[in-house]
User: What shape does this take?
Amino acid sequence: MVKTKPFVKWVGGKSQLLEQLDAQLPVDFGDWKDVTYIEPFVGGGAMLFYMLQQYPNICHAVINDVNPDLMTCYRTVRDMPEELITSLMDIQNIYNELLTEDARRDFFLAVRDRYNEKNLDPIENTTKFFFLNRTCFNGLYRVNKKGLFNVPFGKYVNPQICDPMTIRKDSELLQRVEILTDDFEATFDYAHGNTLFYFDPPYRPLSNTSSFKEYTKEAFNDDAQIRLKKYCDRINEAGFHFMLSNSDCKGKSEDDKFFDVLYAEYQIEKVWASRNINSNPVKRGKLTEILVHNYTTTKANSYNGNTQMNITSIYAAEDKAQYNQVI
Ligand SMILES: C[S@@+](CC[C@H](N)C(=O)[O-])C[C@H]1O[C@@H](n2cnc3c(N)ncnc32)[C@H](O)[C@@H]1O
Assistant: This one.
C-alpha cells in the first residue's frame, strides 16, 4: 500500500512522533470493532492520516478545527480532488515561471491580499491556502487580530505546490471522515461505542519568547487548557478513551508542573520531539512532550513491562494537594 502524508505543512505536526503516539494507544486498539476516531484539533492531520491507514477498524472518523479555511481544504480534498489538482497545477506553473525573487514576492503578496478578502469559492480558497502554505515563511499559519493571514514571503525556488498523488490518496481516506469547523467541545455528540479521542491542542509555550501559538485570532491560554481538561473528564465519565499531547512545560522550568497537576488523575508519559519552527537553528533541539491518557495498558507498556517513564506516580502526592488550586 502507498503510504500517504498530510496535504499541508502544519506547525506542531506530529509526523516525527507517530511511532511514539502509536505505542501509547490502548493495547488492544487494533482489535476494537467499529471504531469511531475523533480529532478535535486536527491541524495538518499527520496522526489522522496515519490512523486511517494503519487501523481499518476505524469505520468512522470525525475531525474538527476552529480554522474555517483549513477545514474547507479538507472538504475540497475529500469531495473535489481532480478540480483541485487542475487549479493547483495552474498556479504552480504560473509561479514557477516567474524569474526573479521580486516577481515571486509580488505574486505572493497579491495572492495573500486576495485570500484575505475572504469571499472565494472552495476551489479558489483551497488553491490559495495551499499556495500560501508552500510559499510563505516556514509554512507557518498565523493571523493578526483582525483574522487576516500575515505570514511573510518565504523565498523558495520551485516549491511543489501541487502533489497529485497525496491529494488523491488523502481524498480516498477522507471518504469515511466527517468534517466540522467549531470549538473542540462540539465533538462530544459524535462519540458512540468504541471511541478514541486524540487531542493535539495548541502548545503551551516553552519560554516567554517562544510563544508561537497564533493559529487563530483567539489565544489558547491556560484557561483554555483547563477547559480542555474538564472536557477530558466528561469523555472519561462517559466511558470513552482519550489521548492528549502537549509541550512539557518542565522544559521551561523544573518547577512548572502545570500539566502534571492538571492531569494528576490520569496516566502521563513523556516523549521526545524535535521542533523546527524556531528561526534560530541553535534553539531547534529535542524537547520533551507529554502524553496523557485515561487507560492504563498501552501497546508500549504491554510489550516491555515499563518502557516509558510514567511520571504520574512521581508527582502524585504533591500534585493531589495542588490540584484544587489549579482548578
Ligand atoms: C498543534 S495544532 C494541531 C497539530 C496537528 N495535530 C498536526 O498534526 O498537524 C492545534 C490546532 O488547534 C486549532 N485550534 C485552536 N483553538 C481551537 C479550539 N478552541 N477548538 C478547536 N481547534 C482549535 C488550531 O487552529 C490548530 O490547527
Q: What stands out?
A: Residues 32 and 57 are 7 Å apart (CA to CA). The pocket of S-adenosylmethionine is lined by residues 10, 12-14, 40-41, 43-44, 46-47, 64-67, 183-184, 200-202, 215-216, 220 (CB under 6 Å). The mean pLDDT is 86. The chain has two domains: 15-66+182-326, 80-165.
